[in-house]
Amino acid sequence: MQLPPALHARLAAGPGAAEPLPVERNPAAGAAPFRFAARLVHFPREHEFFEDGDVQRHLYLQDLFTRVAVEPEKPRVPEFTCQVAGCCQVFDTLEDYEHHYHTLHRNMCSFCKRAFPSGHLLDIHILEWHDSLFQILSERQDMYQCLVEGCTEKFKTSKDRKDHLVRCHLYPADFRFDKPKKSRGPATPIATLQVPADALGDDREQSEGDAMEVCSEHVAPRTEPMAERPTYSHRIPSTICFGQGVSRGFKSTKKRSKHQ
Amino acid sequence: MWNRRHGRLRTVGCGMEELRRRRREREAELRKARREQQLVSKRLLRDDTPEEAEGGCVALILGEAEIQQFLWLAQRGTGEKEREGALVSLRRGLQHPETQQTFIRLKGSMRTLVGLLTSNQALLQLEAARCLHELSHSEQSAVAEACLPATSYLLTYLAGHSSDLIELCLYTLGNLIVESESVRRQLLPQGIVPALASCIQSPHLTVLEALGYALSQLLQAKEAPKKIIPSASACSSVLSTPLPQHMLRLLQPGPKLNPGVAVEFAWCLHYIICSQVNNALLITHGAVSTLGLLLLYLAGAVQRSEDAGLELLLCPVLRCLSNLLTEAAGGQVQLRDERVVVSLFIILQFLLQKQPSLLPEGLWLLNNLTANSPGFCTSLLSLDLIEPLLQLLPVSNVVSVLVLTVLCNVAEKGPAYCWRLWPGPLLPSLLDMLAFSDTEVVGQSLELLQLLFLYRPEAVQAFLQQSGLQALKRHEEEAQLQDRVHALQQTALHR
Ligand SMILES: [Zn+2]
Ligand SMILES: [Zn+2]
Ligand SMILES: [Zn+2]
Question: Which of A41, A51, A74 is closest, CB to CB, to B367?
Answer without folding.
Answer: A41
